[in-house]
Design a protein that fits this description.
By secondary structure, this protein is α/β, with parallel strands linked by helices. It has 16 helices and 7 strands. The strands form 2 sheets. Strands 2-3-4-1-5 form a 5-stranded parallel beta sheet, sandwiched between helices. Helix 15 runs antiparallel to helix 16. The two termini are 46 Å apart. The relative contact order is 0.09.
């Protein structure tokens, strides 16, 4: 974001492509670009397209219209899920001779427009590294007269899977938890912040790898309210299995498994808790449990406990 801020000071480009996995950073980047455009009469000079009204022809028609008042207008594409090759070619053709008064912002969470990256001003909205994220958290709390300990910020990032989207949702709780205390401690974070489901799955995997049955059962009991976590557990262990048996890089595995590279990097640290043979047996177990559920032989809640107990004794 700091790089984008500096680039916007010198000039506003005709097209920005935003890619990554942290929605907070997408929103932040869009806000910064819009502000740099200094829009007047936003109701006329801002056109927004999403899956509800998506049409590449309509988008490019909007791009070709001069601003009603002022120097700039903005056309924003928000995370379009279906993009054809014909659409991309039309967009590429437009970008060879774009209207200078139009700023086209493509918010592309799923990477549908990756092929035109070199023809745009690219903005990376993937999760910040922990040092940068920590600096953002410290700055946000400082605005409210609060400080945070090193242990607390590390726990907060863990609980939110390092997504600033989740972190920002939790900061209000931390700020208002105890007005008499200026320091946010690890204890406060543990009491106040909601753990992301993915982090709970990560904790469960750690407990299963270390054969900590008490911790594993405690975590499973918390998951009973949301049986959809079963699919997250299944996907996580499949990921561990492929990491264990593959010599591919994190980016190659991420592409193969259809996940973000961060998910592979994060999971790689847990592979050491299991042997390749254990992960192979767990992989076979996952297929067995999936069959039991789909054939009606086992309820999802029972399958969750069956899977956990089975992994503990593999």
């Amino acid at each position: 974001m700091k790089t984008l801020k500096n680039r916007l000071k010198s000039s506003v480009k005709v097209c920005y492509l935003l890619e990554g996995d942290d929605l907070y950073l997408f929103d932040k980047a869009i806000s910064m670009i819009k502000k740099a455009c200094n829009l007047e009469l936003e109701e006329f000079n801002l056109s927004v397209f999403d899956d509800e009204n998506y049409s590449m022809k309509a988008i490019l028609d909007a791009c070709e219209v001069m601003p009603m008042v002022g120097d700039k207008k903005v056309v924003l594409l928000k995370n379009i899920s279906k993009v054809t090759e014909s659409d991309k070619k039309l967009l590429e053709k437009y970008l060879t001779s774009p209207l200078e008064s139009t700023c086209l912002i493509i918010s592309d969470f799923d990477g549908k427009f990756a092929s035109i990256k070199t023809k745009t001003e690219f903005v990376d909205c993937k999760r910040m590294d922990r040092n940068l994220a920590t600096a953002v958290i410290v700055a946000e709390l400082s605005k409210q007269g609060k400080q945070i300990s090193g242990e607390a910020v590390a726990t907060l990032l863990d609980y939110c899977n390092s997504y600033l989207t989740g972190v920002m949702n939790e900061l209000d709780k931390l700020i208002n938890y105890d007005a008499s205390q200026s320091l946010v401690t690890k204890k406060v974070v543990e009491e106040v912040v909601s753990k992301a489901t993915e982090f709970t799955v990560f904790e469960l995997t750690e407990a299963l790898g270390k054969k900590d049955s008490d911790k594993a059962l405690e975590l499973v009991s918390l998951m009973e309210k949301d049986i959809s976590t079963l699919s997250l557990i299944t996907n996580h262990f499949r990921r561990l299995f492929f990491i264990a048996i593959s010599d591919s890089s994190d980016s190659e595995l991420a592409s193969l498994l259809g996940v973000k590279e961060y998910a592979i990097t994060k999971a790689r640290g847990q592979v050491k808790n299991f042997s390749k043979m254990q992960l192979k047996k767990i992989y076979s177990l996952l297929e067995k449990v999936d069959y039991f559920i789909k054939s009606g032989q086992m309820l999802a809640l029972n399958a969750l406990y069956y899977l956990v107990f089975s992994i503990l004794y593999i």
